[in-house]
Amino acid sequence: MTLPWHLYLMAFLYILAGINHFRKPGMYIRIIPPVFKNPELINILSGAAEIILGLLLILPATTTFAAWGIIVLLIAIFPANIYMFQNKKAGFGLPRWILFVRLPLQIILIYWASQYIF
């Protein structure tokens, strides 16, 4: 069974993002709100989850499971996007409008993942 190209694109993007958690951990640790303890562990777990879920997306038997996992992951990391918007240091000096646009982008990404559930 051939999967649609946009599913491969999604898988590639999550795998790439997950790898980046290990290549540049400081970038991700910086955006984890201080209320969460052990940001290094959170970074490792979220990076590993992105890689694993990205790989599972391209296996027809696990696509639905992976899509649900990505939706849960996107909801779980949403506090980091809010923290980036609220905290200048966590926002990497990006303009506030870009940080604001990132917030509803999560909804678009959740919608994209939901296309592989039904």
Automatic annotation (TrEMBL):
<feature type="transmembrane region" description="Helical">
    <location>
        <begin position="42"/>
        <end position="59"/>
    </location>
</feature>
<dbReference type="InterPro" id="IPR032808">
    <property type="entry name" value="DoxX"/>
</dbReference>
<dbReference type="Pfam" id="PF07681">
    <property type="entry name" value="DoxX"/>
</dbReference>
<keyword id="KW-1133">Transmembrane helix</keyword>
<feature type="transmembrane region" description="Helical">
    <location>
        <begin position="65"/>
        <end position="85"/>
    </location>
</feature>
<feature type="transmembrane region" description="Helical">
    <location>
        <begin position="6"/>
        <end position="22"/>
    </location>
</feature>
<keyword id="KW-0472">Membrane</keyword>
<feature type="transmembrane region" description="Helical">
    <location>
        <begin position="97"/>
        <end position="114"/>
    </location>
</feature>
<keyword id="KW-0812">Transmembrane</keyword>
<protein>
    <submittedName>
        <fullName>DoxX family protein</fullName>
    </submittedName>
</protein>
